[in-house]
Amino acid sequence: MIGTKVSVRLRMSAHDAHYAGELVDGARVLALFGDVATEMLIRLDGDEGLFRAYENVEFLAPVFAGDFVEVSCELVAVGKTSRKFFFEARKLISNVRSPRLAPSAAEVLSPPVVVARALGTCVVPLALQRRPPELYPPGLPPGPAPAPDPIVTPDETAETSDVILTAAIVGAELTRAHTPHLPITVGEIADEAARCREAGAAVIHLHVRNDDGSNTQATERFAEVIAAIRASCDCIIQPSTGGAVGMSIDERAGPLACRPEMATLNCGSINFGDDVFINSRADIRRLALRIQTADAMPELECYEVGHIAEALALAAEGVLRTPLHFQFVLGVKGAIPAREDVVGWMRSMVPSGSTWGLAAIGRWQQPFTELAMRLGGHARVGLEDNIYLKKDFLSEGSAPLVARAAAYARSIGRQPASPARARHLLGLTRPSMAPPPK
Ligand code: KMH
Ligand code: ZN
User: Fold this and answer.
1) At 324, is the secondary structure helix, strand, or coil?
2) Which of 118, 171, 278, 380 is deepest in the core (most CB within 10 A)?
3) Which of 304, 301, 219, 313 is nearest to 260 (CA)?
């Protein structure tokens, strides 16, 4: 039920324009938010309900008479009488308004431009609820519910309000030919980690390079970089054990000798673009045991639904300790694509008490990490997965991508977790997992 969406699409008319230059007022957009919320309440409860409060209303771009606008509302939390929605209005088509072109000249905006966002809470009094049982979680009876209760957050835990933002700042495949903003040297990587911390990241997902930019999983290089990051910020450091395609398992395990707090565990094989990223069952098990021996927490990278099943099987054998932390990696060419139904499916497999985050590749990074945040998950952004801040505009490092994700989290009522808070949420506060002294 969380994630249910309703939308309307309409053209703004001259009647909607309120200000000079045929500018539509923000109140008109809020009225449309009210309309989609009303439809949603009718679908959920058989009643129009009442709007109780808005939080975090943002007007991000102007709307003019003639614009085609799509307004959507997504259910993000449910209480006994309250329903919390995330609203977004996007401009799909706009008149060109150029003195050199006819006034009727118009263009399709690709991608659409987000013009407003908000969080809002509506209520349907108990006596008016006519809820179809299939729309509500098992255990809630149809018809009027017995007693009010506090709002239920998307993943039904009290702690989903903080978002753990992971910054993937280097990667293994990226080169300076792709982006001049790739950090390579020890100092560059440590500075970028500190900038990401400042922007809201709690975790640094780490690959390292030799000074010539080539990939390495060498313990010594990781030790140097980890020491430099620890001197510059308090982030959780999560070295890669995936390394670059083609490396041996022993080579990939290099950073574990640095006894990091976390380390990635890739939970299956995939076609990785034109390459094959091999993680046999035996390899995964060996690496998982080495991560456990290093007393690190694995970040379970899942590029396919079956990878989640693999991780759960290892947990059942005791090779992975609970709680688990999953990272869904969507949109790698050759693996599962970034689609909303995929996210719904993958998160449905995460056992209660465990946590999940989402990393999406390329142009999917922003919309899918935002979706994850709305659904109560965590998010990974950064140059490893996406080098653009917007179309044709390179991000100057990973920090701007983190800052944008942090701003989005706040706009939907969630806070970017500090590293200390993230340690608590992930269960990294076990004495044996305490961060090593600086
Ligand atoms: N470079 C990819 C083949 C990880 O960090 O563990 C693997 C990767 C995953 O980046
Ligand atoms: Zn990686």
Assistant:
1) coil
2) 380
3) 219
Q: Is the CB of 217 under 6 A from ligand 1?
A: no
Written as tens digits, the pLDDT of the chain (438 aa) is 777 889 999 999 999 999 999 999 999 999 999 999 999 999 999 999 999 999 889 999 999 999 999 999 998 888 888 999 999 999 999 999 988 999 899 999 988 999 999 999 999 998 898 876 666 554 443 444 433 333 444 554 434 589 999 999 999 999 999 999 999 999 999 999 999 999 999 999 999 999 999 999 999 999 999 999 999 999 999 999 999 999 999 999 999 999 999 999 999 999 999 999 999 999 999 999 999 999 999 999 999 999 999 999 999 999 999 999 999 999 999 999 999 999 999 999 999 999 999 999 999 999 999 999 999 999 999 999 999 999 999 999 999 999 999 999 998 889 999 999 999 999 997 555 555 655
Residues 6+ apart with CB under 8 A from 18: 24, 25, 28
Q: What count of other Cβ atoms lies within 10 Å of the Cβ of residue 180?
A: 8
Residue 157 Cα to ligand 1 midpoint, Å, equals 30
Q: Is the CB of 244 under 6 A from ligand 1?
A: yes
CB of 264 within 6 A of ligand 1: the answer is yes
Report the half-sphere exposure of 285 (CA within 13 A, side-chain side): 8
Question: Tokens 């058989």 belong to which residue?
Answer: 46
Contact 170, 383 (CB under 8 A): yes
Beta bridge partners of 121: 53, 84
Give the CB-side neighbour count of residue 303, counting CA atoms within 13 A.
21
